[in-house]
Amino acid sequence: MPGDSGRPRRFWVLIGMTVATVLLAAVLAGVLLRGATDDGDGDTRGAATTTTADDVITSADDPRLPAEKRREASASTGRATTRESSTAPATSSAAATRTILRRAAAKAAAAGGSGSGAAVGVIGPGSVARAGDLPTTHAWSSSKVAVLSGVLRARRKGELGGGTSPTAEERRLATSALTASDNAAAESLFGELTAKYGGVDGASDVVETALQAGSGKAIPVNRRKRGSFTTFGQTELPLADGVRFFGGLSAGCVLDAADTTFVTGLMQQVVSGQRWGLGTPSWGARVAFKGGWGPEDGGSYVAVQYGILRKGSRGVAVAVAAQRPGGLEAVTPVLTKMAQALRSALPPSKWPKVAAGCPGG
């Protein structure tokens, strides 16, 4: 029947159109999905590389995350692990060094009692610890090292007549001034500077420059005469700054290698009558030191020693000082007691490694 045969045809047409529409939609959807996936994968790969790296570094340092997650994050990126390993040990080592220095200075000062002071520092740039109620003294004969350094620096620059190498006379004077603390020898060396640089002020400027090269600090050198004493010996020198200078001297910040060896070598040859204090303990290392002593106003007497202690790649610069009523015999036993306490608290095994560079540099 015509009516019945037309309905199936329309039905199949509708079915065909529906199928075609679905297939077309599926094809279009596939194209869109593929395009989105390609673009998305490109973006996602870029984001994963950047974001994951950033997230891992952040996660490794984020204290809000559990420790296990932070360890996983550190393990998955070299950058996070490298940052932690390169900074944490250095910080820990510096803190440990400061603790060692503080304890050693405190024990030395405690051994000296009231009217005593001690300072301990690294060789080169770094920490200096001071303890006790005597933070500053007149430099007295310890200043002879700075005077000799000033002469040697001027000599190497060609500013003194007779060439750029220390003369035989300068070497003789240096030996007497540092090993036997000969005052006349030191005054002769200072006299070279006064003759060249126009008097005490000019010579003192040269010594100040040497002190600053070693310590990184501006240390004023006294220019006024006090009785029969040398002007430079009356310089007020804080123990901490003196330690910085002698540490800088040992590090090669004041003189060239040959002159540094010459000066510190003389400081290792102090005569037996002046080997109290730092010269008494058995350090098991190279010990170079120079002392200074003299009367103060009010009837008291002061003695101070600066030392450079080296063993292999390790070392420290130290100072011990004491002031007491009386004379030299009243203070030297105190410095010896302080030095022995320092040796007990600071054996060579605890000395920090010598740092590259100069104080204040």
Helix/strand-derived class?
alpha+beta
Discrete helix count: 10
CATH level-four homologous superfamily name of the domain at 102-350: DD-peptidase/beta-lactamase superfamily
CATH class of the domain at 102-350: Alpha Beta
- CATH topology of the domain at 102-350, what is it called? Beta-lactamase
What secondary-structure arrangement, pairings included, does this model have?
Blueprint: H1 2-61, H2 67-75, H3 78-112, E1 116-122, E2 128-132, E3 136-138, H4 144-156, H5 168-179, H6 183-197, H7 200-215, E4 236-238, H8 239-250, H9 257-267, E5 286-295, E6 300-311, E7 314-325, H10 328-345
Antiparallel strand pairs: 1-2, 1-7, 3-4, 5-6, 6-7
Helix pairs in contact: 1-2, 3-10, 4-6, 4-7, 5-6, 6-7, 7-8
Q: What features would you describe in this structure?
A:
The chain contains 10 helices and 7 strands. The chain is an alpha+beta fold and 361 residues long. It is globular and about 50 Å long. Strands 2-1-7-6-5 form a 5-stranded antiparallel sheet, with helices on both faces. The chain has a two-stranded antiparallel ribbon with strand order 3-4. It has helices spanning 2-61, 67-75, 78-112, 144-156, 168-179, 183-197, 200-215, 239-250, 257-267, 328-345; strands at residues 116-122, 128-132, 136-138, 236-238, 286-295, 300-311, 314-325. It has a domain at 102-350: 3-Layer(aba) Sandwich (Beta-lactamase). Helix content is 56%, strand content 14%. Helix 5 (168-179) crosses helix 6.
